[in-house]
Automatic annotation (TrEMBL), chains A, B:
Top EC group: transferase
Protein's name in the database: fructokinase
Taxonomic source organism: Paenibacillus spiritus
SUPFAM superfamilies in the record: Actin-like ATPase domain
One Pfam family from the record: ROK
Cofactor dependence: Mg(2+)
Gene3D superfamilies named among the record's database cross-references: 3.30.420.40
Catalytic activity: D-fructose + ATP = D-fructose 6-phosphate + ADP + H(+)
Keywords: ATP-binding, Carbohydrate metabolism, Kinase, Magnesium, Metal-binding, Nucleotide-binding, Transferase, Zinc
Keyword Ion transport: no
């Protein structure tokens, strides 16, 4: 039986998902159990052009709610005057754009809205590598670094949303690269995102062999970040995705360095023998982003 | 009318509070609205001796629930086999002590249990400097450094409890002191808790005048820590207590350095003109610890 029909039979809610990225918007529909039925992708140009394609995609889909996992910074705090806006992005045309307002006005359904990484954290906790846990952290290491977290089943907000990719970590003693973050120079993103690896070693991360010293240095930075996240949030699992983490040989390097840094201070089996199941790749693979948006749609549908 | 009678008239629940510290146990009773009626203090020697005094104190108090804000590390995760235990403390006699089990067996009331700093964070959010907010962070800077946080009205747990005092922050360029943390050497606690200030400058922090370079260095470390907490947790307010923070001239130094470090990346009024109301001393003053334990008692009474 096709997936559509199984969902129909179980009377699952049909939901829409928008993974709003800086280069493309991936749209899809799926069921509230995390099943993704179909997807389509549109280039991120101007809000007028891109959103016209998004609306056209959803026009005949009859979804009950839509979730948006968005590039940022955004305002995800309900009740704030700019709730639902993309706020201060350097991306031309999108700063100050009321993304939630536009989707709500056009599709007239509940809209869930959060950062792409908060969405992915929620998706992984519902259907992926952190299924069944009360808390988890999802971090993506690609052209940038971002992370989201679930605590007691809820996504973290406060003043606004986390920006965990911009923490300062201790510099690797052999690293002379100054970092590329326009705000902080050598914050985590500035020294450990894909462009930093490329600039430091003179060729793209994907072309550096597994034994290259680049990876020990990359593991140094990511393990320092994970140490901070463990000490601040105490997540029950850490899911690492994004282009750089496709280098699966990074995982054992990061796990070992994380254990060395914590030095046995936090006593938990997950940080000792269980470390291979503690720092893991996404259970949803390349679907983490779109499934995350679907998870945000589910949350919006439930709240409605 | 005496406080006791007002509480009686309003039919407020009478609750017990235990602030379990490494040198003394402070016990008290109070109402669920945060009013503390009385307190007593007992030295922390062995569990047998100390707890006998604690039980004697509560014997005729008829409290409806007890809250314990404890030194750690502890196991605050309900359902864990060692829930309610003090786990791996270097404090003699107390490692592996089932504190919650002992209190429950003796007093036969619901027991709330968490770290002292998580308790203080909850107390500040209910009755103190973060009243009415959905999230806050409480950090104490004294003989050690610890922090607790409220997110969406709940205390953070996961693997266990946060240990935010042990994050690594960037070293101050002029600092040659190696740090005193037995686990991590120069982690935040190792370089910025009271003993580090004393060891670095050759006299106790309390004896260093306001213009001493010690304070600019201390602000460097604490502002770096706050930057990480802001980027990971996005708390709506940060409350700073503990002996070192009695030096109130530290507050403006920390606020300014925090703004410089964030460099405008997180756009929020609280981090600009509102910074004086964002990084603040405890609203509950020296009662933060005991009121925190009272808040944990209230949570236990509500859950029951």
């Amino acid at each position: 039986m096709p997936l559509e029909c199984i969902g129909e039979e179980l009377r699952l809610k049909l939901l829409g998902a928008i993974e709003a990225g800086g280069t493309k918007f991936v749209c899809g529909i799926g069921y509230e159990d995390g099943t993704i039925l179909e997807r389509a992708s549109f280039p991120t140009t101007t809000p007028e052009e891109t959103m016209a394609l998004v609306f056209e995609y959803f026009r005949d889909k009859a979804v009950e709610a839509v979730g948006i996992g968005s590039f940022g910074p955004i305002d995800p705090v309900p009740g704030s005057p700019t709730y639902g806006y993309i706020t201060t992005t350097p991306k031309p045309h999108w700063g100050g754009y009321n993304l939630v307002g536009a989707v709500r006005a056009e599709l007239n359904v509940p809209v869930g809205f959060d950062t792409d990484v908060n969405g992915a954290a929620l998706g992984e906790s519902l259907w992926g590598a952190a299924q069944g846990l009360e808390s988890c952290l999802y971090i993506t290491v690609g052209t940038g670094i971002g992370a989201g977290a679930v605590v007691h089943g809820e996504l973290i907000h406060g003043l606004s949303h986390p920006e965990m990719g911009h923490i300062y970590v201790r510099r690797h003693p052999d690293d002379r690269y100054e970092g590329f973050c326009p705000y902080h120079g050598d914050c985590l993103e500035g020294v450990a995102a894909g462009p930093a690896i490329g600039a430091r070693w003179g060729k793209p991360a994907a072309e550096l062999e597994a034994g290259h010293p680049a990876w020990e240095m990359e593991a140094h930075y990511l393990a320092h970040a994970l140490m901070n996240y463990v000490l601040v949030l105490s997540p029950q699992r850490i899911v690492m995705g994004g282009g750089v983490m496709k280098q699966s040989h990074l995982f054992p390097l990061i796990r070992t360095q994380l254990q060395e840094l914590l030095a046995g201070y936090v006593q938990h089996a997950s940080l000792k023998d269980g470390i291979d199941r503690y720092v893991v790749p996404p259970g949803l693979g390349d679907n983490a982003g779109l499934a995350g948006a679907l998870a945000l749609a589910r949350m919006a549908a439930e709240k409605n």
